[in-house]
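Entry 14. Ran structure prediction on the chain below.
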Amino acid sequence: MPKKEPLTFAINWNACIHCGACVAVCPLEAGFISPFDTIAVGETCHIACMACEKICPVSAIIPQPAEASI
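Output, structure tokens:
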């Protein structure tokens, strides 16, 4: 199984209903939460399991390739 590339996430705030499902399903430590009770925005997710995107009832989570560290 190929290694998944790290991702960052953006949130479509016009669609997000702040249900907390993304946070509840996230296997990362509790610190991977935004001040708005969603998954962290702009932080690198190294496991990229996509559970948050799959569970979002309004498809508000937008995965993006993480920028390479320099």
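The first strand starts at residue 7 and ends at 11. Will compare against last week's run tomorrow.
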